[in-house]
Amino acid sequence: MNIKSILIALCALLTATGCNGQNKQKVEQSKNTTMGKSIVIFFSHAGDNYAVGNIEVGNTKIVADYISEITGADQFEIVTHKYDGMAYTPLINLAQEETRNGELPPYEGEAPDLSQYDTVFIGGPVWWGTYPQVMFTLFRDINLDGKTVIPFTTHEGSGLAGCARDVKKAFPGATVKGEFAIYGHEVRTGRAKVEKWINGLK
Asked: What is the pTM of this model?
């Protein structure tokens, strides 16, 4: 093969590689914009957790990170220091009391500006049949009218419990759909399950 033929072959190879890269980028861009601009709002409890022991990163945080990796969604973590350092049993007792009394514990910082988002994922653990009460404090401070809201939970047997119902109640002007629940002890090896769920959303 002469030099001219080699150069032509190289050019063809580079062109094909570039096209494949552009096509892959277009697929990823299309995948990330299917639901419009999105954000994951979540509360996640590190420390002593049922079934997984003392963990440095909360189960829901891991799922939120998967969602952001797959969709490109932004994140807003609901943070409170009220439960820091608590053992599991005192924590669930406190959570039960908060739920029973309808308490709204304060969260750190300010509520996010959600005007630019089309889709809002909302996630947290299931504490006594619904999301932790601090999440409802944030719900009081945000408006999701006209947005698509997708609830998800991490749990150890409760599934979605009343979380989707309570999200619908909190945001009657939103379209709530695509609910998802995953066991907390599965999340560290459960990225494929999260991805399958995301890919099934319409």
From this structure: 0.83
